[in-house]
Amino acid sequence: MNSNAIIEVKRDAYIQAAHDEYMRLTKKTYDELKNYAKSEWGDGVRGDEFVTIEDAVATGQIAADNYLENEAEEAEAKAIAAAASAMGRRGGAAKTPAKAAAAKRRDNVGLAAGRKVLAALTPEQRSENAKKAAAARWAKNKE
Questions:
Q1: How many domains does one find in the chain?
Q2: Average pLDDT, stretch 49-74?
Q3: Angstrom distance (rounded) from CA 33 to CA 68
Q4: For residue 120, what are the domain limits?
Q5: Claim to verify: residue 120 and residue 82 sit in the same structural domain
Q6: How far is CA 70 from CA 23, 63, 66, 74, in A?
Q7: Looking at the whole model, is its pTM more than 0.85?
């Protein structure tokens, strides 16, 4: 055999090994594989980069395994994106019927009512509130 024929055999061995490994391990359905082409494994492969035919076969299997791993990562990313979308863009919807109903049930005292409450406090109560607020601020700074 001349060297060109040997190179072509190595290239073919690489393509066949990659194809066989991919078809053996893929989780895709028949419909998903309709546009699959075995010949795409040979894109960019000349054949002279392999020392032996066994090297070409092993490299083809590794290429298929890497491709399957990337395929699985892409599928997982799509599933996460779909779940996040269903949740309402990561974290749930800001406005829901339950939140709206709860807001309607809550008393909305407003600023005027708050001022009345503050005016009714004794100096000791205001001092106690100030101490609690300062303690809360210091506790946040220590964390």
A1: 2
A2: 90
A3: 13
A4: 107-142
A5: no
A6: 15, 11, 6, 6
A7: no
